[in-house]
Amino acid sequence: MTDQTTPVSTTIQPDPGDNAVKRFLKATEIDTRLLGMVGALLMIWIGFHLYGALVNGFGAFLTPRNLWNLSVQTASIGIMATGMVLVIVPRHIDLSVGSLLGLCAVVMGVVQTEVLPAVFGLGHPMIWVFAVISGLVVGTIVGAFQGALIAYGKIPAFIVTLGGLLVWRGVAYLVVRGETISPLDSTFSLLGGGPYGAVGAVGSWIVGVLGCVGVIFLLVNGRRQRRKFHFPLRPVWAETFLGILGCGIVIGAVLLVNSYPWPRGIVRQYAEANAIEVPESGLFISHGFAIPVLILLAVGIAMTFIMTRTRFGRYVFAIGGNPEAAELAGINTKRMTVKIFALMGFLCGLSAVVASARLNSATNALGTLDELFVIAAAVIGGTSLSGGIGTIYGAILGAFVMQSLQTGMVLIGFDAAIQQVVVGSVLVIAVYLDILYRRRQK
Amino acid sequence: MVDRTGTPLVELRDISISFGGIKAVDHVSVDLYPGEVHGLLGHNGAGKSTLIKCLSGAYKMDTGEILVNGRRVEINNPRDARANNIETIYQTLALADNLDAASNLFLGRELTTPLGTVNDAAMEAECRKIMGQLNPNFRKFKDPVSALSGGQRQSVAIARAVYFDARILIMDEPTAALGPHETQMVADLIKQLKAQGIGIFLIDHDVHAVMELCDRASVMKNGQLVGTVDIPDVTDDDLLGMIILGKKPGQAAA
Fold it and tell me: In this complex, which of B88, B118, B132 lies closest to A309 when CB atoms are compared?
């Protein structure tokens, strides 16, 4: 041991044999897997855009409008994918998420259109709050119930949730007798996005500034912690680079969502309602971040915090790495399983809010096949089905990849059959590449 | 010599446990005094690991009682054992392979910040400290333990047991996967811990290691206790005879 008595914080030292790229990655400590995923996502985006531009004469993908819509469409799957990481890391699986989403959606639909108006009166501002709570509660209870069957009944998660896939879809049908509930409460439907369901230019800048402050705080705090415990520090230039990169991405996102204006019809409607004169050239009103995207963002941050900063998250990984060791270390693995599935259920409820609000309707068919997309998103995002490995940001990126493929193929005019072929193939290829990467790491 | 006049550190009285009709442990009683190393010997399947797992909380015994410092205690799970300052180094090491050394060291007993979040930096710093004492060559603090060698993994498992002020330490074949150098390291550690007044149950196949390290030895066969002997009173062959024949030396003579 060198300097055991008086340790000093040193800077990370590159190996002399490393080339410039390697040295750069080592100094910034950027995760190469993350880099690969972002690269793949960008390639998909540019590929679709170029294909559209060359073959159809119009590149529709890399437009503010499409990217804004893409972000909204990803929200529902993305929210559940973060929960799926939590489920897959300790070696479970949840096949019931799509059906549970459907059940939560119809329960919220009934609560906000039949139950609450009778109590508060139609259009009461508190209706959406109680409706959302009802959906979250149903999701959490159902999730906890499935978790209890898995933990205490010792039934494999695959079987319990395969049963759940059928049961909750059936229950959803029974709740609404197969009818579609529409329209929903007007405040509630804002949670699904749309021109009114976005925070506008000023709101987006506030989010952006908060984001930049967050990035800088994390870097400064990380450096302080390392210095306190005498761990090697990143070089100052690397810290600066990370700060600029992080803030740049945040500001870029704000500029992007702010450059997508409201459609003319909505502007006219809005102008009439608020007695604003619309000039000849039209009025430019930005969408800004859509509310479901902000919900996804909040869920992503909260789940990352849970997975990396809390004991709960640490135990999730420990169970995934070695269930027996976790048990011997005094972790109550059964109670953990119930909590994990309850949280997954909660996220299904939240996802149901976004999905049904976006369509402004609730049907028992909502979320059909979502379980496959959610699991695919988590797995593309690097979650290992053999347990122990997975990240929240990976799952969200995976959800973006899935959704980009879907949207992109619709934009360039591929039909549904080809879409299925491509999405299925991409899933297999992505996981294979990940396996190759991990093998090389060892 | 170990002073065995006071209250034993731990007493296992009349322990029995069976799995599906097979008596894995059949009315066995052993005890352990402070500063004593008590060896447990026997063939594979003799029941020594099972017996000790009742003490570490991995199994729940069917009948019998456990006394720690003369007081009867309930040990229903590993948490109860830890609460009684009983620490275990399992034969399988029981490490979560995907986590780093510090996370494994503190698994189930994480250091937290005032906000209640896990304090990884503090845990890594503590981990560096204890590993500096146990295995000064240990460098891989950031890697998952799956990337470590057998000896390094062993030192993580040992660090976990000794870091938390164990009074009673259970070592289940701690040197099974180790080379000669690391085996010596474990032997030195056992002597050092013994000098601190910690009681150690040592399960081992190697009769020579038991002769060298232990004060007493108990031999089990087919779930039953063959006998407990003072190591100074017996030879290697006596112990081997007990393991193979299932008879105490005195009995064989008589």
Answer: B118
pLDDT digits (tens, 9 = 90+) for B25-81: 999 999 999 999 999 998 888 889 899 999 999 999 999 999 999 999 999 999 999
Distances (CA, A) of B81 to A115, A330, B12, B58: 52, 9, 13, 9
Type and span of the H or E element at A110? helix A97-110
Largest CA distance in chain A: 75
Positions of CATH 3.40.50.300 in chain B? 1-85+168-176+200-254
Where along chain A do its domains lie? 59-198+290-369
Task: For CA atoms B42, B46, B50, B51, give the dihedral sign.
Answer: negative
Alpha-carbon distance of B115 to B126, in angstroms, equals 19
Question: Residue B214 and residue A67: Cα distance in Å, rounded?
Answer: 71
A324 touches chain B (CB under 8 A): yes
Selected for mutation to probe chain A from B75, B97, B98 (highest A CB count within 10 Å) is: B98
Supply the pTM of this predicted model: 0.91
Strand partners, B224: B221
Based on C-alpha coordinates, what's the Rg of chain A?
24
Residue range B1-85+168-176+200-254 forms a domain whose CATH class is alpha beta
Q: What are phi and psi of B26, to 5 degrees?
A: -120, 95
The answer to whether the Cβ–Cβ distance between B107 and A230 falls below 8 Å is: no
Kindly give the interhelix angle for A416-441 and A370-380, rounded to the nearest 10 degrees: 30
Residue type, B106: F
Q: Which residues of B touch A228 (CB under 8 A)?
A: 121
Higher-confidence residue: A18 or B4? B4
Residue whose structure tokens are 């209250």:
B7
* Residue in B closest to A322 by C-alpha: B96
| pLDDT tens per residue across span B71-108 | 999 999 999 999 999 999 988 889 999 999 999 999 99
Which of chain A's residues have a Cβ under 8 Å away from the Cβ of B77?
A: 330
Question: Rg (Cα) of chain B, in Å, rounded?
Answer: 19
So what's the ipTM on this one? Answer: 0.88
Q: Residue A441 pLDDT > 90, yes or no?
A: no
